[in-house]
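Problem 12. The chain below contains 189 residues. Write out its predicted structure in token notation.
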Amino acid sequence: MTTQLFMIRHAESLYVSGAERTRGLTEQGQEAVRQVTAIMNEIRVDVVVSSPFGRAIMTVQGIADERGLEILTFEGLRERLITSPEQEVPNEERLAAIKRSFSDPDFAYPGGETTRQAAERAMPVIKDLLEQYRGQTIVMGTHGNMLTIILNQYDKAYDFTFWESTTMPDIYRLDFQGNVLAGVERLWK
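Solution.
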């Protein structure tokens, strides 16, 4: 019995210092959400879940609305903090920290969260969803780091290079046989 998990990375959102949880989508991001909703239109969806962050919820809202489903949010699926929210870090430094965090899962920039810590809070949610909705279809609003961290728990080939290749938005279908990841397919562009 196959369970499908559609991991949908949020659409484009401008960074706003101090607004990590609440920042919304750009105009381009809103247009991309319409495309995501259209791609998912022909797919049966049993449950929609998300990170509690606004941009992730907004990206899957149309999918839920078209089916009359509530979006269930899970704190364990929130985006990983790379640095302290109060700390401004140059982009190249932030990218170097993300890269190192995938080769050293216990590394964190001061004030940030390690890959291991993020996985330890997200994976119980994933395992519970796979158990509760076995044989069904789950749509999940997520973030680039969390998408990569979750996939990395099943296959180490999903690393910094993979993270760099993802787009905003992005859609990956994960096929599970029980709790075993049996296949991954990218559906976005």
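Discussion. The CA atoms of residues 37 and 63 lie 5 Å apart. Students who got a different answer should revisit the alignment rule from Section 12.3.
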